[in-house]
Amino acid sequence: LSTLHLKFTMLSKYFRYALSLSAAALKNHIDLDKKNSMSDYNSQNHNGSVWDFNWDKRSRGKEMDANLKKANSKVVRHIIMIRHGQYYQRKEDSSERILTELGRKQAEVCGDRIRKLIKYFHPVQLTTLFASTMIRADQTARIICERIGMPVEKISYDPLLEEGAPVEPEPPKYNWYPEEKKFYEDGARIEAAFRKYFHRPEPSQKEPTLEVIVCHANVIRFFVMRALQLPTKAWARMNLAHCSLTYVRILENGEVNLVYLGDTGYMPIDMVSYR
């Protein structure tokens, strides 16, 4: 009987201890909820949404963003990303990784498509054409400029847009094993490129803009995942054809829309290539 009484006493103590922990945890949870509900809009999401409305650290505040959305603001950044044309991938010297004959034709057809899109977006003007400094992107950008009637001197080259390993993909790619330091170095650079090119319109912007970025498949796929606030490790689950178009809209209140991804519908089917 004494043994049974001892066990009962110990169970009672454990039960009271568990209740005290539960009460403390509940109090902490309530306090945290109160703290979050009173936090500044710029560090919290709308209505508990998982979407971070201040993803670019340029939010003008909850009331202003709501007013912009309600007013259906026309100040939008239209960003069209283009993967370069097919190139000689197996060349060891990077200077020899130039466009193939098919790659040049792809760039020409792509340029014609961009010219039509410029007419479609009228009166919005193509403000800038950015390009990676890698030769295959440079050649693609130059051909596009020729087709749309833009002087090649207006191409803005940026080494941040060069191809690389943005983040270790999940699941891993069976035929692609960069060193860990490659992800460390390239990841920081490509993230810097994202922060440079992806943000809502500045307060000084009064009209919509159209920008074209000629770069690489890994970079574009990472940009898309990052812009949509999706797991960036999933970037390799998508595939992009050469000279495919990926179109993203960024609204004045910070909302992001992916209009299309890897579009090659404008290109004859026998010209579509991935490698």
TrEMBL record:
Keywords: Hydrolase, Membrane, Mitochondrion, Mitochondrion outer membrane. SMART domains: PGAM. CDD domains: HP_PGM_like. It catalyses: O-phospho-L-threonyl-[protein] + H2O = L-threonyl-[protein] + phosphate; O-phospho-L-seryl-[protein] + H2O = L-seryl-[protein] + phosphate. One of its GO terms (molecular function) is protein serine/threonine phosphatase activity. Signal peptide: none annotated. Its main location: mitochondrion. InterPro entries: His_Pase_superF_clade-1, His_PPase_superfam, Mito_Ser/Thr_phosphatase. Belongs to the phosphoglycerate mutase family. BPG-dependent PGAM subfamily. This is Serine/threonine-protein phosphatase PGAM5, mitochondrial. The lineage of its organism: Eukaryota, Metazoa, Ecdysozoa, Nematoda, Enoplea.
